[in-house]
Amino acid sequence: MIWQNIKNAFISIKSAKLRSFLTVIGVVIGVFAVLVMIGVGDGVKKDISGEISSLGTNVLTVASGRIGQSSSQRQTSQQQQRQTSGFPFSGGFGTSTLTEKDVASIKNISDIDKITTFGIISSSVVSGNYSSEGAFVVSAEPNYFSIRNIKLSEGREITDRDNEDKKLVAVIGSNTKADLFGDENAIGKKLTLRGKEFEVVGITKKSDGGLSFGSSSDDVVIIPYNTGVELTGKNEIFRILVQVNDAKNIDSVKSEITKAIQQNHAGEDDFSVLTQEDLLGTFNSILDILTTFVVAIAAISLLVGGIGIMNIMLVTVSERTKEIGIRKAMGATFGNILGQFMTESIVISLIGGIIGVLVSYLAGFVIKRLANITPVFSPRALLAALGVSLLVGIVFGTAPAIKAARKNPIQALKSL
Amino acid sequence: MKKNNQKIVIKLDKLSKRYDDEAGVYDALRAINLEVAEGEFINIMGPSGSGKSTLMNIIGLLDRPTKGNYYLDGVNTAKLSSKDIAKLRRDKIGFVFQNFNLLPRLNLAQNVEMPLIYKKVSLRQRREKVKEVLSKVGLEDKIKNRPNRLSGGQVQRAAIARALINDPSIILADEPTGNLDTKTGVEIMNLLKELNLQGVTVVLVTHNPELSEYASKTIIVRDGKIIEDTKK
């Protein structure tokens, strides 16, 4: 029976080609709009995830002060979003609560690959008559480079030796280099921080130009951690970065670090341990709101497509009143007629859905070329698109089909 | 012709139909009694507005009486749901209409097999049966043709084939020759007669008195009542 209904649907669609085509177009536009918006949203999300994970994989950030995640329990995403959105700043105020003892305790935890501490030093960055306004000064241990995934275009990284000997050396970002030295070779040149001269030993590779979070490695002066302590006279740990050996151990290491530091701080929750996910969560939730909004607007076009189907089905039903009468005389039940017309609207809608999916795919290539965003069409989104078009067919086909099935056979047979 | 042991296919028992709408109350049928035995060829006649169409609609299970009972093949149709009525119509009644009523978009095979589709008969069985009934009416070579490629007589033959496909208890023919020329009309009547001789019960509704010669029994309806019931 279902097969027969589908066959009848195609016979009917073929017998009114232009009309069917126009109706299908309505659904195609709706599905296309929704899919492309979701695809672009997911594409941007993927870009940002890539950006954040390029800050270093499997990295936990230990910060002073209460930021985001509670140490013992997960919070709702909404709370998380509100609190972690302050991440880049809030931990920077006041005196850090993190100590060398905390670093030592973390080093004792298993499943840790690398650890680095770093501080932020407030200082102007000057070389001769030039200064770099955008640069900020980071004092960091050598592991900082590998954990933050910072690559150099020239020179060398900060070494253990530099750190132990408190050498006056610096690795500078590509923008900072341009500010201070222009196109000249900068390696071996001097810059001044808090009245002391530092030798430039390395320059970071320019980042891809994508969105950057936390600190950009383009506008930065990185000096050895111990040199920084001597320069400022204070051992103030801004963050501890911990690289975990395997992604599956992130959560267990996180809770162990939390436990260890809590012990050091006499049970006080004056620090935070954040995963990459905590960071991602913020950006994703903002993006989700945007995507939802845009998709909702796109969905209106799908609604309009559905109304188009309903309209055409109502016309079809009244045009085919006689057929309904004949079919009823041949023994068709209410359900038979209902099924026949429902199938017809579902077939129209599904054809629209399938074409919409194909058109979206093609549009994906165009968008990739023109907008430098790669839309992501997950299988789930595609199934959802087909599911929604099925639903549109059912929802907007029901009323016309009921109208058809209810027709009085005697009246229907008399109609022309 | 009627024997005592012959099966009664149609039995109308004090059947009435009253229309009650804005136009007022109107009694289309008034306490009609009628029996049709298996293998009979009855001819229902009467002028326009006599109630003949209403009677045909009720016999064809397209309409329901207001009062009284209608037994089709021994089943009292008064107590059936509309779904069961539709099934009974599908299984027991074959319609032949004045204007043929084949679907123009479907070919002959698709038109003829329609009642079997509603009965969920398999494709293979449907094909066999379609071939069988189309050859009965002499259209086996037109199986893939659409109705618009055929003459009026051929289309009506196809409609008769469609009426036969479910091996119905009765064939209900409503002015089957009304849209045909005389010669073709005679052919169609001969076909119905031939089927009747093979055992099919035929109920013919017409206002053409010439057709009563084919019937074994003629009933004349006037003002909602049977005023004459003539057996040959």
What does this structure look like?
The complex is a heterodimer of chains A (416) and B (232). With 416 residues, chain A is an alpha+beta fold. Chain A folds into two domains: 2-50 and 283-414, no CATH class; 57-273, no CATH class. Helix content of chain A is 57%, strand content 15%. Chain A is built from 15 helices and twelve strands. Chain A has helices at 2-15, 17-53, 77-84, 87-90, 100-107, 143-147, 160-164, 174-181, 225-232, 250-264, 276-319, 321-329, 334-371, 379-405, 409-414; strands at residues 59-64, 112-121, 126-127, 130-131, 136-140, 152-155, 169-172, 190-193, 196-204, 220-224, 239-244, 271-274. In chain A, the strands form two sheets. In chain A, strands 1, 2, 5, 6, 7, 8, 9, 10, 11 and 12 form a ten-stranded mixed beta sheet that branches. Chain A has a two-stranded antiparallel sheet with strand order 3-4. Mean pLDDT of chain A is 85; it is low at 69-92 and 209-214. By secondary structure, chain B is of the alpha/beta class. Chain B has one domain: 3-Layer(aba) Sandwich (Rossmann fold), CATH 3.40.50.300. Chain B contains seven helices and ten strands. Chain B has helices spanning 52-59, 82-92, 108-112, 114-118, 123-136, 152-164, 182-197; strands at 8-21, 24-37, 41-45, 67-72, 75-76, 93-96, 170-174, 201-206, 217-222, 225-231. A six-stranded mixed beta sheet of chain B has the order 6-7-8-3-9-10, sandwiched between helices. The model of chain B has no long low-confidence stretch (mean pLDDT 91). Classes of the chains: A alpha+beta (416), B alpha/beta (232).
What's this, in brief?
The complex is a heterodimer of chains A (416) and B (232). Chain A has 416 residues and is of the alpha+beta class.
Largest sheet descriptor of chain A:
10 strands, mixed
As for the CATH topology of chain B, it is Rossmann fold
Quaternary state of this entry equals heterodimer
Nearest-angstrom radius of gyration of chain B? Answer: 18 Å
The SS-based structural class of chain B is alpha/beta
Largest interface: A-B, 22 and 26 residues
CA radius of gyration of chain A is 32 Å
Structural class of chain A: alpha+beta
Note the run of SSEs of chain B as H and E: EEEHEEHEHHHHEHEEE
Q: Give the count of structural domains of chain B.
A: 1
Share of helical residues of chain A:
55-70%
